[in-house]
């Protein structure tokens, strides 16, 4: 295991252990406070029963936190996003322990106010703990220190794509080292430049500055980099990372315009490692589609009625519309949606949707914002044409153009299209070839890293989009 991975694993393990201790202590503290404020309702239980309940709740919270990625160091998220995941973890644990207690552990008698208080205090305690750990870098768990070899056009992708503080959450970028052959005109403009030679003294620079990782981002590699020096860094435990791998890891996207065939051939991913997930794919999607249908059918019925009434003065009002899309392996199918545009929206041919599109109806604006227009695609999931999670299917007229203009675009069709996707969460609007290029970076990341855990993360964030109306 590399130094960088060992450090990340150690940090995750320490955080997991400390949070488990905090949750256990909060369990004790909650019992004291409930007894103080609700003494008449407090029932003294045997220590073994009390410890069993606290231990079960602690284990459930830690497992739930693992499932939503709270201990994944490379999962970049705002602090508000971290709070959401903490809330989800504790909510899942609270629900499970309520079911278990009322079903199997009925002999345990405890105040009805205890578990709600315990859950609420746990959320508050972990949020405060995470704030001090992640924002102040205490306990010796600070950021990794990184330098970039190269300050030209390729290196500038870091400056352009990772400008915000949250984009560099988890590492400290010490600076960029210019290399002969770099395109300085299109290169780094506002970042710190380090005029250090990649020679025998380079290892001293690495040691003196406690560098954890070296990112290779020079425009010209042949004849400009000393393989021996980089090899020596690697043997000393310093991570040496290609720019593409670095951007993929830190931003959750693959920089398509910088890709080269050998990187695709030798990199990990682009194949599903979860055989159980593959075998149960259709069954799982059907079960989820059934659950969503049971929860949303009243909203779907109301939406259909409102759309019909909005167009009641037209000769042939249409609530649902079908549109041909490109699916798995390029197979065409008809996607089903609630109509959100005027009936004559494409009288002049297929057009890209745009922000504040004048073709969108009043009802259409609302149902698009909350993604209600997508709900009829549950039928496409039942038919096996779509999954819940995957790249959004595009129209064949646009696909033909995009395949010609964007490298590797066709590779997004190697997985089944989805109702929700990684690209929609990270780049929610696409109205041009340039937008399609940006979305492809996230689509290829999903194709490469598809897994049950990533699907769960996408589902959780999609629920947030729906609840808070962040759709387009």
Automatic annotation (TrEMBL):
Keyword Transmembrane helix set for record: yes
Gene Ontology annotations of biological process type: colanic acid biosynthetic process
InterPro entries in UniProt: Bact_transf, EPS_sugar_tfrase, Sugar_tfrase_EpsB_2
Entry keyword set: Membrane, Transferase, Transmembrane, Transmembrane helix
Annotated compartments: Membrane
Pfam family, one: CoA_binding_3
GO CC annotation: membrane
Protein's UniProt keywords contain Lipoprotein: no
GO molecular function: undecaprenyl-phosphate glucose phosphotransferase activity
Domain Bacterial sugar transferase: 284-467
Record's bilayer topology term: Multi-pass membrane protein
Record field: transmembrane: 12-38, 50-70, 82-101, 113-133, 286-309
Family, as annotated: Belongs to the bacterial sugar transferase family.
Alphabetized PANTHER family for the sequence: COLANIC BIOSYNTHESIS UDP-GLUCOSE LIPID CARRIER TRANSFERASE, UDP-GLUCOSE:UNDECAPRENYL-PHOSPHATE GLUCOSE-1-PHOSPHATE TRANSFERASE
Protein name (Swiss-Prot/TrEMBL): Sugar transferase
Species this protein is from: Paraglaciecola psychrophila 170
């Amino acid at each position: 295991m590399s130094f960088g991975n060992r450090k990340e694993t150690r940090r995750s393990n320490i955080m997991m252990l400390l949070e488990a201790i905090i949750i256990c202590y909060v369990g004790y503290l909650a019992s004291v406070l409930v007894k103080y404020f609700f003494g008449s309702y407090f029932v003294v239980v045997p220590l073994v029963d009390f410890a069993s309940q606290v231990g079960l709740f602690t284990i459930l919270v830690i497992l739930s936190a693992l499932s939503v990625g709270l201990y994944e160091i490379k999962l970049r998220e705002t602090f508000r996003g971290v709070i959401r995941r903490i809330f989800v973890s504790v909510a899942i644990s609270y629900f499970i322990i309520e079911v278990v207690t009322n079903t199997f552990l009925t002999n345990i008698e405890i105040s009805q106010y205890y578990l709600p208080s315990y859950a609420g205090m746990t959320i508050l305690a972990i949020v405060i703990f995470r704030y001090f750990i992640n924002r102040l870098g205490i306990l010796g768990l600070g950021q990794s220190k990184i330098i970039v070899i190269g300050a030209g056009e390729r290196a500038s992708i870091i400056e352009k794509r990772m400008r915000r503080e949250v984009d560099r959450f988890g590492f400290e970028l010490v600076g960029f080292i210019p290399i002969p052959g770099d395109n300085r005109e299109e290169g780094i403009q506002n970042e710190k430049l380090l005029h250090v030679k990649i020679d025998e003294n380079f290892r001293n620079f690495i040691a003196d500055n406690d560098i954890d990782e070296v990112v290779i981002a020079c425009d010209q590699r042949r004849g400009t980099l000393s393989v021996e020096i980089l090899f020596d860094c690697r043997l000393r435990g310093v991570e040496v990372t290609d720019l593409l791998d670095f951007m993929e890891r830190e931003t959750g996207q693959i920089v398509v315009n910088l890709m080269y065939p050998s990187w695709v051939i030798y990199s990990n991913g682009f194949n599903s490692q979860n055989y159980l997930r593959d075998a149960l794919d259709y069954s799982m999607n059907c079960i989820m589609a059934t659950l969503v249908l049971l929860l949303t059918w009243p909203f779907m019925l109301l939406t259909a009625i409102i759309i019909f009434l909005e167009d009641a003065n037209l000769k042939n009002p249409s609530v649902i519309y079908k549109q041909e899309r490109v699916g798995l392996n390029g197979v065409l199918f008809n996607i089903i949606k609630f109509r959100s545009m005027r009936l004559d929206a494409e009288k002049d041919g297929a057009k890209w949707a745009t922000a504040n599109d004048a073709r969108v109806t009043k009802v259409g604006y609302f149902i698009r914002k909350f993604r209600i227009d997508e709900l009829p695609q549950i039928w496409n999931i039942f038919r096996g044409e779509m999954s819940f999670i995957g790249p959004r299917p595009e129209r064949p007229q646009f696909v033909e153009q995009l395949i010609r203009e964007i490298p590797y675009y066709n590779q997004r069709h190697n997985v089944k299209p989805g109702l929700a996707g990684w690209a929609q969460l990270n780049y929610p609007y696409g109205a041009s070839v340039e937008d399609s290029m940006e979305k492809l970076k996230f689509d290829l990341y999903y194709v490469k890293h598809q897994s049950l855990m990533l699907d769960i993360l996408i589902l959780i964030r999609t629920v947030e989009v729906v609840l808070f109306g962040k759709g387009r």
